[in-house]
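Hi P.,

Sorry for the delay on this. The queue was packed all week, but I finally got your sequence through. Input first:
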Amino acid sequence: MNNSYKHSLSINSKITQISVNRCFDGEQHYYSHQSTSTKTPMTFSIYLPDEALTGRRCPAVLYLSGLTCNADNVTHKAHFQQKCSELGMIFIAPDTSPRSSEGHDVANDERYFVGQGASYYVDATQAPWADNFNMQSYIVDELYDLLRSEFPIDSIGITGHSMGGHGALLLGFKFPSKFVSVSALAPICAASESAWGQAAYTEYFGDDKSQWAQADASQMIVEVGQQYASILVDQGAADNFLAEGQLQTAKLQEACNKAQQPLTLRYQAGHDHSYYFIQTVINEHIEHHWRMAQMS
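Then the structure:
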């Protein structure tokens, strides 16, 4: 194992290194830590270009994954490392939810769009979910502060795929002081109006529709108005989840129009919801976040 990178907290580090692999001009790392937000162990991957490995502060992009995923999917399949190496960009991928493990019994549901592997990056208020499903607090408070204390990060942009695209849009507009840029890939744009989101929010929030509204990306954009010079969203035109009405992409365009938020929304002909689609557009999203970081 290559342990060339030393953390700023070194001896008193709150994170445990799981693995390190050399990749292009940088290193792909995995870490675990005990979360106070979820009350469970959590893991994340982080790609550190050589500039960061020498201690130079670099822009970062935080990637939120979709339903059923964990940090492995994007880290192994998206092929972002070469572009991040070229630009000197840090790329972070946390897990999608708390999970049961030895000594930690976490609420679950047989529906993949509700239980472990879901979360929608919100803080649940209803039992039994509220005990552990506090992913909004985990991402924007705990993990955010942990990353900035441990690694030489200059600024953070946020992106994600599907449920993670919903999370990127929601958290990016709910907490604009934390993120310099926002993009999304095939996002769930109006979770409170999709069958997936309605099933999850009934569990997480009960019947309180005001909480549903605060967990809906399109409604949040309308509520807070323009926050960014530009946001980038790509959607596969042959995505079966788009056809089924789970993504509600038109609602995002409507919300940005109302909020006067500049949006570049691109429908990619022939592309589906898979990581082949993500591979196709990920470099342009990394470049988008890099450009926005230079302007911040």
